[in-house]
């Protein structure tokens, strides 16, 4: 009986750990970067549904622009001072893919 209980607890711990690891790997939170020609765009998604972005061009960096966001069920909604944009998103390891209409943007997560 004690052996079965130990095995059951170990299985529960393993499954819980695996679910936790999977959830962490799919989080949009963090810093994501995309190069587009001479521009480099940086998006920072912070805890609590806030974030900011900025771009760099020829060594000059723009001022950061703040936004609020929600990411749920594969849809990302960004609200920047009342200007609301939605797009589909997916995360695969360290790659964030944003799709809106026929436009696709691929960003890489910074460590």
Report on the architecture of this protein.
- It is built from 1 helix and 9 strands; from the N terminus they run H-E-E-E-E-E-E-E-E-E.
- It has about 110 residues and is of the alpha+beta class.
- The chain has an 8-stranded antiparallel β-barrel.
- The termini are far apart.
Number of helices: 1
- Report the portion of residues in β strands: over 45%
Q: Tell me the total number of β-strands.
A: 9
Q: Which structural category do the helix and sheet elements fall into?
A: alpha+beta
Q: H/E order of the elements?
A: HEEEEEEEEE
What characterizes the major β-sheet?
8 strands, antiparallel, barrel
Radius of gyration: 19 Å
Principal-axes geometry comes out as globular
Describe the protein's topology.
Layout: H1 2-25, E1 30-36, E2 39-45, E3 50-57, E4 60-61, E5 65-72, E6 75-80, E7 83-92, E8 95-100, E9 103-109
Protein traits:
alpha+beta; 8-stranded antiparallel β-barrel; disordered N terminus
What's the quick description here?
By secondary structure, this protein is α+β, with helices and mostly antiparallel strands. It has one helix and nine strands.
